[in-house]
Design goal:
Length: about 190
């Protein structure tokens, strides 16, 4: 019986290589996503779907250019059009990443029953050669009248990871939930006493 308890406990442990800052950021980002969605926010995947669609079109353009039934000297104009379309579509995809997505790890819809009409944009940063993890929660539509103030925290990852690279989820959940609560309270109207 005790073996089963320790076996199930070790399966749920989230462990990471402490020398790999990308793996650390990925682990923390996945945990943040789990925490925010567990609080009732539903993930908004529309931007991801647009990127998938755009990527599919780019692949089709490349395949058509590669397997067009005429040989090179005859299909020169067609290839130039395909290459131009490929470059334009790839530039549009990069523009979406640069302008809209930035460091975002999660886009959400507004909470059901909430007075706000905007969801959340959760973004994070973990600079190379640094242990400072910055988590930011912002409104998905900052120009909206119901948009809340942006909140963030910056803390060392050593507060949540043991020397063996195991994530202490309780501490991390507490910090992230406090940030989500701070965002929701900042967006609520103040009650008069």
């Amino acid at each position: 019986m005790e073996e089963k308890k320790t076996e199930s406990a070790t399966k749920n442990v989230k462990k990471v290589n402490l020398l790999d800052h990308i793996a650390i950021k990925h682990l923390l980002d996945e945990s943040v996503s789990d925490i925010v969605t567990s609080r009732g926010y539903k993930e908004d995947v529309r931007l991801s779907n647009v990127k998938f669609l755009l990527g599919g079109i780019i692949i089709v353009v490349a395949l058509v250019a590669q397997f067009y039934n005429k040989k090179f000297p005859e299909n020169r104009d067609f290839l130039i059009c395909c290459i131009g379309l490929y470059v334009v579509l790839t530039a549009v995809m990069q523009l979406i990443l640069y302008i809209k997505e930035k460091n975002a790890i999660l886009f959400t819809y507004p909470l059901e029953g909430s007075f706000t009409s905007t969801g959340l944009v959760v973004s994070s940063k973990l600079p190379r050669f640094s242990d400072q993890y910055t988590l930011t929660i912002d409104s998905a539509d900052p120009q909206s009248i119901s948009a809340g103030k942006s909140v963030q925290f910056t803390k060392s990852v050593t507060q949540w990871l043991t020397k063996d690279g195991v994530l202490v989820e309780g501490l991390f959940w507490k910090d992230v939930e406090a940030l989500v609560k701070e965002y929701t309270e900042a967006g609520e109207p103040k009650k008069k006493r």
